[in-house]
What we know:
The complex is a heterodimer. By secondary structure, chain A is an all-alpha fold. Chain A contains 10 helices and no strands. Chain A has helices spanning 12-26, 35-57, 60-63, 66-71, 82-85, 91-112, 117-141, 145-158, 176-194, 219-234. Chain A is globular. The model of chain A has no long low-confidence stretch (mean pLDDT 93). The longest helix of chain B has 17 residues, at 83-99. Chain B is elongated and about 65 Å long. Chain A: It comes from Streptomyces spirodelae.
Amino acid sequence: xxxxxxxxxxxxxxxxxxxxxxxxxxxxxxxxxxxxxxxxxxxxxxxxxxxxxxxxxxxxxxxxxxxxxxxxxxxxxxxxxxxxxxxxxxxxxxxxxxxxxxxxxxxxxxxxxxxxxxxxxxxxxxxxxxxxxxxxxxxxxxxxxxxxxxxxxxxxxxxxxxxxxxxxxxxxxxxxxxxxxxxxxxxxxxxxxxxxxxxxxxxxxxxxxxxxxxxxxxxxxxxxxxxxxxxxxxxxxxxx
Amino acid sequence: xxxxxxxxxxxxxxxxxxxxxxxxxxxxxxxxxxxxxxxxxxxxxxxxxxxxxxxxxxxxxxxxxxxxxxxxxxxxxxxxxxxxxxxxxxxxxxxxxxxxxxxxxxxxxxxxxxxxxxxxxxxxxxxxxxxxxxxxxxxxxxxxxxxxxxxxxxxxxxxxxxxxxxxxxxxxxxxxxxxxxxxxxxxxxxxxxxxxxxxxxxxxx
Lengths: 240, 205
């Protein structure tokens, strides 16, 4: 259990995870396979954006306004994990990314709830995100041969970004090893129901251990930032 | 757009002379001045105009540290709820026009977090009347509600929910989930398998 409040910048990686995944999910607007999913992904993105805003607001003394934190930092200043910056790919790819992330974020927020008001607030919302991802994983994995193959491929491709989730974030008192074991057991359980194979490969590349938390990102991240920050940088102070 | 009706519309109009009559005062009695908290609480929810902010349970505190200066504490239903800004603007307008407040500050507070249990009995009744299945009680005490899943290729038995969400139209307990997320973050989209009508369900959180 966590006993002490997070130190000053400890919540930045959590805010960056939420903002970047929100931006990725927003890319589905207008492209989701069915209307209900369009709405679901946009709603999850909105929840995540709200989390990012609340976490950034708590850092304004150190890092400036929400807009400055989101739109005026360079790539190396972002502390999000590499998993959330990975491109959407096909729907199965997005769902597996959602599963890996929400099965991490929800129990992490549950642990932080006693010391971080935002975590106490958002933990129940993230339970819905997680449920959404779990049920889609089962639906796709135990669906057609095509959906099964695509979901397995997504799991194999994204697995290398999962160990990073449990690299300790300085200033957050969490039993990271215990969180990692719980996560792996949960993923095994969902994959079992979905008829999917848990990837055997290492959960990280040799060069990438915890790299996102240190400000090192994968190639697609630069393009995401360019799109996300373009308007604010081109028209500083623009409002609706 | 959903059109508000009855007292909700009157409160939303922000017209001082009209809204004084909206208070449930006995006929003939001169309109008693409504307290700041009552006024702020009477503001209808911008997205669910059938219920007020007081009934939704999002209004935490209304104080007047000095005459004409009102402090309001508001808590969001969902972290990213975009209606919070509209709520704050509506509260400010009502307090300025109807209570003559000169300065209104609306602060958002996160702790303790809002729960669907905070919706009043009256609020639940109005939601159901409006066609939205109210959240099942006990959300705060229990683990997040698992939704049922229709059969997949190998799991031929659908999974069951512990307590049914009843259809707000015909009252049947046989309803199914269409989507966990509906027109707003706080609602799920369901369908009644008895009367076949789709409906929104205010999720437990």
